[in-house]
Write a structure and sequence with these properties.
By secondary structure, the chain is an alpha+beta fold. The protein has helices at residues 11-26, 32-46, 82-90, 142-155, and strands at residues 52-59, 62-70, 76-78, 94-96, 114-122, 125-134. Helix 1 packs antiparallel against helix 2 and helix 1 runs parallel beside helix 4. It is globular and about 40 Å long. It has a six-stranded antiparallel beta sheet, sandwiched between helices. It contains four helices and six strands. The structure holds methionine sulfoxide. Methionine sulfoxide binds at residues 52, 73-74, 77, 82-85, 105-106, 108, 112, 115, 131, 133.
């Protein structure tokens, strides 16, 4: 039923294809955990060279681990701490080419070398962040940021 071909053309095409698949998978489903779980699995399947892909949800002023793919991760992150906490505090995408040079980076997996964190906003408030990690330095660029921001916009109203 959910058999899809992954685009092999440009990165922009890959993200368009990923967004269309995510839209199809989450449209009409109101459960936030189901939608985050499928989103994490879909991103993991589509995007090469990741060692972690998933969500932290903003609950009572703290980021709490949500559905993800990859190794076990830190469960709670204070807003303002690390890359995820900075994205939540500023409501801005964090594109980190070398996590070793990001002051306060939280090393859940020492293999991570670069990271992209995109805030997910609903009605003007951050409700979660989408976090992607890679074992390769400089894995993510502006196209990845724009592609993941489009995914975050799509998910805003579908993850609670
Ligand atoms: N590195 C992140 C913590 C989350 S893990 O990468 C899954 C950070 O600095 O916020």
């Amino acid at each position: 039923m959910y058999d899809f071909a992954i685009a092999t053309g440009s990165k922009a095409e890959l993200y368009r294809d990923l967004a269309a698949s995510l839209d199809a998978l989450t449209a009409g489903e109101a459960d936030p955990v189901a939608n985050m779980a499928n989103a994490a699995a879909l991103i993991w399947q589509y995007l090469p060279d990741l060692n972690w892909a998933g969500f932290y949800r903003l609950i009572d002023g703290e980021l709490v681990l949500g559905p993800f793919q990859g190794k076990v991760a830190c469960i709670r992150i204070a807003v303002g701490k690390g890359v995820c906490g900075t994205a939540a505090a500023t409501s801005r995408t964090q594109l980190v080419g070398d996590v070793h040079s990001f002051a306060g980076h939280i090393a859940c997996d020492p293999a991570s070398r670069s990271e992209l964190v995109v805030p997910i906003v609903q009605e003007g408030k951050v409700t979660a962040v989408l976090d992607l990690d890679s074992p390769s330095p400089n894995r993510f660029d502006a196209e990845d940021a724009a592609g993941c921001e489009a995914l975050a916009r799509l998910l805003g109203s579908r993850i609670g």
